[in-house]
Write a structure and sequence with these properties.
This is NADH-ubiquinone oxidoreductase chain L. The protein is mainly alpha-helical. Helix content is about 75%, strand content about 5%.
Length: about 625
């Protein structure tokens, strides 16, 4: 594959960066124009991303002129950007979903007192994800990786007056830090072994046989830890359902193309390392398959529309992890692409429902198909794509994942097929509860279709859900060439496809039965099972009683010792005041400080590597 110098990698970043700067400086006087500025930035980024994808589909990697950030001894860190086939696919997905979400948000967020701030944060979120994709060295990659986390914190906790939103934002930020430590350790290990932070050089070193087998396995597992944190894979999935406290358009972008997609993208990028270690590959496949089934099971007991969709995201990301572990980067990125479109559609439709009825509680809905037929139709389109019915996009990408699992063999295939059935069950249950039957509240009886600025982006995503499955067909041209460059497509037999379609039909019927049964008296055993599902099989409770309790205990000891030391030097009064202040910080979470420390650690690592390289 040839290299071509181009400014396109920087051009993709320029519009959201410009929108962010403009909104940061003038968001208040701009008023409603702030939404259009944010949407223009995302749309222009999509235009440049499509242009870059067209060029990259011809077998060219676009490399932008770089700037040296650090040069000492053998270590050189550059601010560079490049777009190959993998990056081109991801850029188009991120920019397209972001453009639709920005347009949708113009009407959805109208009247909010922090309207301009919302679009400022949304532009930053888009910029961070695009920057992560085009980065050519791990230092810059990690900086954007952390910026994605910081932007998600701002958006999940956007409604700052709500305690639940603030807690959800801190929880997401803290839990994903666990995974980030894994990524940081992997970057350090690769830089030490390869003597470089360059992504291409480190991947080549780790996968070429030059590195010891144990080192490669450790690197693969550390990469998996980093990806699992961002993508909400078991047991680090606990933050993702709570992240639904953010505005619904944020959920669409976060679940479809940014925060959680970053983990799957990391594994696709680190694919050579994962596949160079049979142990890392097998662990990735098993973890992904288990998470897919586990999250689908949890979705069965959820009564909140957005949280059902959140668990479905965790489950579908498990499919992507399964594909990488099974040896098919093609299937992983194909499913990431189709999932982005139908999941964004489902979340935007959920937002339209919330606008109409004022709640995400499925028990407060019913009969919405008559009141909101367009929304109901578009939601059905997304739901059927999620389940995997032909000829919708989700069918083809899901079959590619299962075909890869079939070729690899073992337990993951059975877990993946079981997930197909459970996905159909919870989506069938959700759809019946929300759209069929009689309205169960006055708000549901008075529901109305949203305006054109909300329906329009939903319709655009609906078109993509219909056609994206053909992205691998020769007639698709550039998209087919880009995906083909990621690796061979696994061959899915007719029998596997027919079996999954039949399982999907059976699951939808079972979901309908489950929805009808929800209004019937439950036995004690069924009630206990439902309580376990609603409690997430008590994983969160386990964290609270172990990790959180231990952290608070240690934190209190540290605070007490710190206060004692302060008292020896500054007096008792100052010590008491300092203890109170530090105790609040320890328990409330100072996210800005966490982020600064993470970035400082990375800079120290780079400097140490530079000194050692002299």
């Amino acid at each position: 594959m040839g290299m071509q110098e181009s400014w396109l990698p920087w051009a993709v970043l320029a519009p959201p960066f410009g929108a962010f700067v403009l909104l940061a400086a003038f968001r208040r006087p701009l008023g409603r124009l702030a939404g259009w500025i944010g949407a223009a930035g995302a749309t222009l980024a999509l235009v440049f991303a499509l242009q870059a994808a067209w060029t990259a589909s011809g077998g060219v990697t676009l490399s932008a002129p770089s700037v040296a950030l650090l040069s000492a001894g053998d270590v050189r860190i550059e601010l560079g950007a490049a777009i190959g086939p993998l990056q081109a696919v991801m850029l188009v997905v991120v920019a397209a979903v972001s453009a639709f979400v920005h347009l949708y948000s113009i009407d959805y967020m109208a009247g909010h007192r922090r309207y301009g701030t919302y679009f400022q944060h949304l532009s930053l979120f888009t910029l961070a994800m695009l920057g992560l994709v085009v980065a050519t060295n791990w230092v810059v990659f990690y900086l954007f990786w952390e910026l994605v986390g910081a932007a998600s914190y701002l958006l999940i906790g956007f409604d700052v007056e709500r305690e639940a939103a603030r807690r959800a934002a801190v929880k997401a930020f803290v839990v994903t830090r666990i995974g980030d430590l894994g990524l940081l350790a992997a970057i350090w290990g690769m830089a030490q072994g390869a003597g470089s932070f360059d992504i291409a050089e480190t991947l080549a070193w780790a996968s070429s046989g030059a590195a010891p087998a144990g080192t490669v396995t450790a690197l693969g597992l550390l990469m998996l830890l980093g990806a699992a944190g961002k993508s909400g894979q078991f047991p680090l999935h606990v933050w993702l359902p709570d992240a639904m406290e953010g505005p619904t358009p944020v959920s669409a972008l976060l679940h479809a193309a940014t925060m959680v997609a970053a983990g799957a993208y990391l594994l696709a990028l680190a694919f050579p390392i994962v596949q160079a270690s049979p142990e890392a590959a097998r662990t990735t496949a098993v973890l992904g398959a288990f998470t897919a089934l586990f999250a689908a099971t949890l979705a069965l007991g959820e009564g909140d529309l957005k949280r059902v969709l959140a668990y479905s995201t965790v489950s579908q990301l498990g499919y992507m992890f399964l594909a990488v572990g099974a040896g098919s980067r093609f299937a992983a990125m194909f499913h990431l692409t189709t999932h982005a479109f139908f999941k964004a559609l489902l979340f935007l439709a959920a937002g339209a429902i919330y606008h109409a009825v004022g709640t995400n509680d499925l028990a407060a809905m019913g009969g919405l198909a008559r009141r909101m037929p367009k929304t109901a139709g578009l939601f059905a389109l997304g739901a059927l794509a999620l389940v995997g019915f032909p000829p919708l996009a989700g069918f083809f990408s899901k079959e590619a994942v299962l075909a890869a699992a079939q070729e690899a063999g073992g337990v993951p295939l059975g877990l993946g097929v079981g997930t197909v059935f459970l996905t159909a069950v919870y989506m069938g249950r959700l759809y019946v509860l929300a759209f069929f039957g009689e309205p169960r509240t006055e708000a549901a009886r008075e529901a109305r279709e949203p305006g054109g600025l909300i329906l329009g982006p939903m319709a655009g995503l609906g078109v993509l859900v219909l056609v994206a499955g053909a992205a691998t067909a020769p007639v698709a041209g550039p998209s087919a060439r880009l995906l083909a460059a990621l690796g061979p497509a696994p061959e899915a037999g007719v029998g596997l496809g027919a079996a999954t379609v039949l399982l999907g039909i059976a699951g939808l019927l079972a979901g309908r039965r489950l929805a009808v049964g929800a209004r019937c008296p439950m036995t004690a055993a069924v009630r206990k099972a439902e309580q376990a599902l609603q409690a997430g099989f008590y994983v969160d409770a386990c964290y609270r009683r172990t990790v959180v309790a231990a952290s608070v205990f240690v934190g209190r000891i540290v605070v007490a010792v710190d206060a004692l030391v302060d008292g020896l030097f500054t007096g008792t009064a100052a010590a008491v005041a300092g203890a109170g202040r530090r105790l609040r910080e320890a328990e409330a979470g100072q996210v800005q400080r966490y982020n600064a420390v993470a970035l400082l650690v990375l800079v120290i690592i780079a400097l140490v590597a530079a000194i050692r390289g002299r």
